[in-house]
Amino acid sequence: MEGVIKPELARCLRTLCLPAFGANHAAHAAMAAAEGWSYDRYLLALCELELGQRERRRKERMLLASKLPRSKTLESFDRTRLKTGVNRQISALQEGEFLDRAENVLVFGPPGGGKTHLLSGLGHALVERGRTVLFASCVLLVQRLLLAKTELKLAKELKALDRYEALIIDDIGYVQQDRDEMEVLFTLLAHRYEQRSVLLTSNLVFSEWERIFKDPMTTAAAIDRLVHHSVILELNLPSYRMETAKGRKAKPAPSPTAAAAKTLVGEADDAL
Ligand code: ADP
Ligand code: MG
């Protein structure tokens, strides 16, 4: 009998999909015997291992599904560049409760200031808390919706996006859109209004949004829906890349060319 127990146990654990039990029960049994654990304690230790592994795998799957840029996390984001108020808001948003209230997060600022990185970092933090997130560039998202519309599947596609508690739309208004593109974007925003959160980045301030939605009525309606329940983060920061390039250039002993380069960078910053 003893001889068949081990293979039979391995088979049962496989069938029950308990890989952590399979990998750890023998070592834990030795530990339990050496330290005089009760049966309950032994079982609990294995259950906790299994649940821990499951949770890690689930987060890994959610991270893959989120399409978040892997390296753009809050850990790799220099938060000292942010104003205290924005920093405080980011800390609060990381908790994820705004998603339960279907609130939006709107991030504005000139190019290179860190809008995409910041929202991506927030997305990572939300996935870590078990929230469902999808990161998409506005251009690609609109293409996806347009395709669904021509195939008469727009409603289905919008429903598929409902799976995500947080939809990050990166760079709204970056590329000039035609009327059809604007319409599906508006339909998406109206669909999620008060149901699901939208997190977006834009280089354009609201007064320039007519470029996106073409006519004043649609523009006002889109802004109204987004802003109604929202947190607005103004990232009026100089370009991070320019700043770090400046830092690197500033280190060597000043030479006339370095000084000229610095001036150029400074001017470019002002132009953003
Ligand atoms: P934006 O979306 O505002 O145009 P990005 O988020 O794309 O700016 O930032 C431009 C580059 O600078 C990216 O490579 C980003 O990782 C980096 N970056 C921006 N801000 C920071 C920051 N505060 N800490 C670390 N890296 C940053
Ligand atoms: Mg960006």
What does this structure look like?
With about 270 residues, the protein is an alpha/beta fold. The chain has 13 helices and five strands. The chain has a five-stranded parallel sheet with strand order 2-3-4-1-5. Helix 9 (about 180-190) links the parallel strand 3 (about 165-170) and strand 4 (about 195-200). The model is unreliable at about 250-270 (pLDDT under 50). Adenosine-5'-diphosphate binds near residues 72, 77 and 113.
Keywords:
binds adenosine-5'-diphosphate; binds magnesium ion; alpha/beta; 272 residues; 5-stranded parallel β-sheet; 62% helix
Give the percentage of residues in beta strands: 5-15%
Structural class by sheet pairing and helices: alpha/beta
Largest sheet: 5 strands, parallel
How far apart lie the N and C ends? 78 Å
Short description:
The protein has helices spanning 2-15, 19-35, 39-66, 84-94, 97-100, 115-128, 138-150, 154-162, 179-192, 210-213, 216-228, 240-250, 256-271; strands at 104-108, 133-137, 166-170, 197-202, 230-234.
Secondary-structure topology with pairs:
Blueprint: H1 2-15, H2 19-35, H3 39-66, H4 84-94, H5 97-100, E1 104-108, H6 115-128, E2 133-137, H7 138-150, H8 154-162, E3 166-170, H9 179-192, E4 197-202, H10 210-213, H11 216-228, E5 230-234, H12 240-250, H13 256-271
Parallel strand pairs: 1-4, 1-5, 2-3, 3-4
Bound molecules: adenosine-5'-diphosphate and magnesium ion (MG).
Magnesium ion binds at residues 115-116, 170-171, 201.
